[in-house]
Design brief:
The complex is a heterodimer of chains A (about 325) and B (about 240). Chain A has about 325 residues and is mainly α. Chain A has 15 helices and two strands. Chain A has a domain of about 220 residues. In chain A, helix 3 runs parallel beside helix 5, helix 3 packs across helix 10 and helix 4 runs antiparallel to helix 10. The two termini of chain A are about 20 Å apart. In chain B, helix 3 crosses helix 4 and helix 4 packs across helix 5. Chain B is an alpha/beta fold. Chain B has two domains: about 160 residues, Rossmann fold; about 60 residues, no CATH class. The chains are: A mainly alpha (about 325), B alpha/beta (about 240).
Chain lengths: ~325, ~240
């Protein structure tokens, strides 16, 4: 445990000092990839809050898109600061999530059926954005109106380092929330509900209330992730922020890393983004589609052979190896 | 304590329960018996809120509870076990019981307090008190005990025990029957007990209600009921031997 804490502290120190380490001409690129990893890890963590309890959503792209588009449209049309816009975006997303999740809970739409419902919701949001092209920009997407200079109010900065630290804080906040949920009685209640709703209700657990609570938390955080992403990229597009594609990307990354552990979503997201970048650089414009094919094959292999995820499996292995040592230490 | 009046449950065109009425007195152990498919478990499901009843009234301590959700009924002080044990497999044995202590009628808001209470209950039913083990290590008898422990941890006034002894050997059966008597004695919990294994049940219960094809055909002390011709007929002429 002490070794784990030490490793965590070293990693955090590296992340904090990261932008000032000598990287030559690579700095902008490395920062860009790191920001992507932090933001998508935050989103993955938000997804796993539901996923780990059997509420497998294949439509988190809907929440992401709602968050990103709400904040962008409010800023472009009314000049509303993203700080307030983000709150509106999260609130709106939570309401939409409740409208979908409440009937599902009441009519016991669970498991695969719940996944299918959410899959449809993700697509509906994407198609709505495309259809309402007069004010959403349709499939061409929408650029964030640039503020004349760096502005805290507009959440726009020329220097990537500002975004880097902002996303680092966001990521840490996400980990903290995940940890708090993991250590609360709500986790046990949700585990019980995830396994057997009838038995859970019979010991006094209010099934619908807990499912709504965790759904609201997960959807709200995902919307905030969408806001962060939109502010950084300053461009929103229905295909990258809503629909099946991005929804599955979130799920794959988390499943790959392991959804039952604190750092699983982060490890999975870092690996998928790094792998995607590497394949993109290696193949470039040759053999179009090869990068995606290899990416897909590797994901399938990992998911079949490491069901607890890469990080989850590694952690279990380390715990198993460490246990005899700890027992011996306890006896001496 | 519990007054069931005209309880009726239809599944489509099939009448699982037809106008069943009975009362449970404070502090007694009531046996609810009947052949397979006579509606015993359906009655439990209706009382505990797992199934909505088609018609009838269920009053618990003077309050109408028909139509309430299962968690609301649990909070009013009715706990149940399941015929086929339904443990939460991803939680440890202790967590299974602690979650019931935390969210049940007793509402032990503090997690540490819920765990302490869970350990006491585990000792009462005869499971290891550390409870750190996984539920996968429990056999049939252990799972039945866990069902009981989880139900008791909610802090009920009335326990609905569904076929607690199915699949146990004779020694385990005697221990389990003894356990129910102790639960009533030590915790002051009133019990309705559904059971197939007649001889064991008859030794423990104060009164018996007999169901057949969804209707109540007899009610009374174990001795009276065993002699009742309709009961004898319902069990295909098999006479219940009281030992």
């Amino acid at each position: 445990m002490r070794a784990g804490r030490l490793a965590g502290a070293v990693l955090l120190a590296l992340l904090v000092l990261g932008p000032f380490l000598p990287m030559g001409g690579m700095r902008q690129y490395v920062l860009h990839v790191l920001i992507q990893i932090l933001v998508w890890s935050f989103i993955g963590g938000a997804w796993s809050l539901m996923g780990r309890f059997g509420l497998v959503s294949l439509g988190h792209g809907a929440f992401l898109g709602l968050g990103a588009y709400t904040v962008t449209l409010l800023w472009n049309a009314y000049g509303l600061t993203p700080w307030l816009g983000g709150v509106v975006a999260a609130a709106l997303t939570i309401v939409v999530a409740l409208v979908v999740a409440y009937p599902c809970s009441r009519f016991q739409v669970v498991g695969h059926y719940f996944a299918l419902v959410t899959l449809a919701v993700g697509e509906v949001v994407r198609l709505l954005i495309i259809a309402e092209r007069n004010w959403t920009g349709g499939s061409l997407g929408l650029s964030l109106r640039a503020s004349p200079s760096d502005s805290l109010l507009a959440m726009q900065f020329a220097d990537k380092r500002v975004f880097y630290y902002a996303s680092l804080v966001l990521w840490l906040a996400g980990l903290w929330i995940w940890y708090r949920v993991d250590r609360s009685m709500a986790r046990e209640a949700m585990e019980a509900i995830g396994e057997d709703e009838t038995a859970a209700a019979s010991v006094g657990i209010h099934v619908t209330r807990f499912k709504m609570g965790i759904t609201m938390l997960s959807a709200g955080l995902t919307a905030i992730g969408g806001v962060a992403y939109a502010q950084y990229i300053t461009y929103v597009n229905p295909d990258t922020l809503a629909g099946i594609g991005v929804s599955l990307r979130i799920v794959f990354a988390v499943v790959l890393g392991g959804m039952y552990s604190l750092l699983g979503p982060t490890v999975g997201t870092a690996l998928t983004i790094a792998l995607g970048e590497y394949l993109r650089v290696v193949f470039g414009l040759r053999l179009i589609g090869m990068a995606e094919t290899i990416y897909g094959l590797l994901l399938i292999v990992f998911i079949i052979f490491l069901p607890a995820g890469i990080y989850g499996s590694l952690r279990d292995a380390v715990t198993r190896l460490a246990r005899p040592a700890r027992l011996a230490g306890g006896l001496s | 304590m519990l007054a069931v009046k005209g309880l009726t449950k239809h599944f489509g065109g099939f009448a699982a329960l037809t106008a069943v009425s009975f009362e449970v007195n404070d502090g007694e152990i009531l046996g609810l018996i009947g052949p397979n498919g006579s509606g015993k478990t359906t009655a439990f499901n209706c009382i505990s809120g797992a199934l909505p009843c088609t018609a009838g009234s269920i009053r618990f301590r003077g309050e109408e509870i028909a139509g309430l959700t299962p968690d609301a009924i649990c909070h009013r002080g009715i706990a149940r076990t399941f015929q086929i044990p339904r443990p939460f497999r991803k939680l440890s044995i202790l967590e299974n019981v602690a979650v019931a202590a935390h969210f049940g009628a007793a509402r032990r808001a503090d997690a540490a307090e819920a765990r302490r209470r869970a350990r006491e209950i585990l000792v009462t039913v005869g499971l290891p008190a550390d409870g750190l083990a996984s539920t996968a290590l429990l056999g049939a008898a252990g799972l039945k005990k866990l069902e009981l422990a989880r139900a008791l941890a909610t802090g009920p006034r009335l326990l609905l025990a569904d076929e607690s002894l199915g699949g146990l050997d004779p020694t385990e059966m005697t221990t389990a029957a003894e356990l129910l008597r102790r639960i009533r004695g030590e915790l002051g919990v009133t019990i309705v007990w559904v059971e197939h294994i007649m001889a064991t049940l008859m030794r423990v219960v104060d009164r018996v209600v007999v169901l057949d094809h969804g209707e109540k055909i007899a009610e009374g002390t174990p001795l009276d009921v065993a002699e009742d011709p309709r009961v004898v007929e319902a069990y295909l002429g098999e006479r219940i031997v009281l030992t």
